[in-house]
Amino acid sequence: YNYECPLMLKGLGKIHPDFTTLNVRKRKVVYWEHLGKMDDAEYAENAIYRKDIYEKNGIFLGDNLILTFETGNCPLNQRMIRTQIDRYLK
After folding, report:
1. What is the pLDDT of residues 24-58, one digit of tens each?
2. Quick one: which of 3, 71, 78 has its CA closest to 33?
3. CB-hemisphere CA count at 13 Å for 89?
4. CA–CA dist 66, 32 (Å, integer)
5. Given the DSSP bridges, would you call strands 28-35 and 65-69 parallel, antiparallel or unpaired?
6. CB of 38 within 8 A of CB of 70?
7. Could you read off the pLDDT of 10-20 as tens digits, one per residue?
8. I need a surface site. Which of 8, 26, 35, 47 has the fewest CB within 10 A?
C-alpha cells in the first residue's frame, strides 16, 4: 500500500487518500479513506461530498473504495478492519 499518495479527481483537484492499495487477485487499485471525526458536523458533510466526488470519478464504495468511520463514542473496530481487508483486498 501507499500512504497519502496523490490522486487527481475532477471536481475536487488533488487529494491524498489515506491508503492506495492493490487487490492483487483482481489487479484493481483500491482507495481507503478513514473518516475519524464523524461527530463533527462540518467534517461529516465534507466526507459525504468527497464520497460523491469519488463516485463522479468512477471510484465506488464497495468496489474500489473502502470507507471506515469513527466518532468519539464509537472508536474504530479492529475486527471490522480485518473484515474490510479480507473482503476487498484478498
Report:
1. 889 999 999 999 999 999 999 999 999 999 999 99
2. 3
3. 16
4. 5
5. parallel
6. yes
7. 999 999 999 99
8. 8
pLDDT at 88 over 90: no
Per-residue HEC secondary structure of the chain comes to CEECCCEEECCCEEECCCEEEEECCCCEEEEEEEECCCCCHHHHHHHHHHHHHHHHCCCCECCCEEEEECCCCCCCCHHHHHHHHHHHCC
AA identity, residue 74: C
> Which residue from 50, 54, 28, 15 is spatially nearest to 5, judged by alpha carbons?
15
The letter for the amino acid at 45 is E
* Angle, vertex CA 30, rays to CA 28 and CA 35, nearest 5: 170
Q: Which set of grid coordinates corresponds to residue 1?
A: 500500500
In sign, the C-alpha dihedral spanning 74, 52, 10, 81 is positive
